[in-house]
Design brief:
43% helix, 229 residues, hydrolase, Candidate DNA repair protein, RadC_JAB, DNA polymerase, domain 1, alpha+beta, 9 helices, Cytidine Deaminase, domain 2, metal ion binding
């Protein structure tokens, strides 16, 4: 069996690293960018095939950004600790960079970034999670917390706990968020009722609810943009 061809031995026009330097990172596909990071494949599986297999295994980049070291260890070709450590470090840097961006500027100056940030954290969880972005008076991110998990209803999400955490963070506003493991981002009647309940409870302590974002693999919906707040 032939050994996989390393990136450096590919024709120049097929080398993603050279393509990146010549044309910029946006010119590369997700598979090519991941191949740059992986550098080599394994016997019988070139680096591009390994990169694509990795994306397929986690449902794309968003799923990969949630991968834990033990998840990566199960992928053939990532058994070595050095390669896994490099990949985990890069993925964590990506998450931290996005959080830093939201802390430095008004959240709603880039609503797309908010949706993407929430997708990275919530979309690929196998159970429902309710989270809150706590914001300061300039609508910059103070913290994100996952407060509840399981089927989300008025009885399983406690407004008092949300209010307490908002006061502890000295938040001026919040963005509510939860995921739909089913894959749909359409809000249910229970979602709308829960939003109004939390909006009323937080309003009593002068904390504004700016949005409620529903995320799923491959999508996100803003209830504010839909006029449901």
């Amino acid at each position: 069996m032939l050994a996989p061809m390393p990136l450096k031995d590919l024709p120049t026009e097929a080398q993603p690293r050279e393509k990146l330097l010549a044309r910029g990172a946006p010119a590369l596909s997700d598979t090519e960018l991941l191949a740059v990071l992986l550098r080599t494949g394994l016997a019988g599986q070139g680096v591009f095939a390994l990169a694509q297999a990795l994306l397929d295994a986690f449902g794309g980049l968003a799923g990969l950004l949630h991968a834990q070291p033990e998840d990566l260890k199960r992928i053939k070709g990532l058994g070595g600790p050095a390669k896994r450590a490099e990949l985990v470090a890069v993925l964590e840097l990506a998450r931290r960079a996005m959080a830093e961006q939201l802390r430095e500027r008004e959240v709603f100056s880039s609503p797309g970034a908010v949706k993407h940030y929430l997708q990275l954290h919530l979309a690929h969880k196998g159970h429902e999670v309710f989270a809150v972005l706590f914001l300061d008076a300039q609508n910059r991110l103070i913290a994100m917390e996952e407060l509840f998990r399981g089927t989300l209803t008025q009885t399983s999400v406690y407004p008092r706990e949300v209010v307490v955490r908002a006061l502890q963070h000295e938040a001026a506003a919040v963005v509510l968020a939860h995921n739909h493991p089913s894959g749909t981002v359409q809000p249910s009647r229970a979602d709308e009722t829960l939003t109004q309940t939390l909006r009323a409870a937080l309003g009593l302590v002068d904390v504004r609810v700016l949005d409620h974002v529903i995320v799923a693999p491959g999508g996100a919906l803003s209830m504010a943009e839909r006029g449901l707040l």
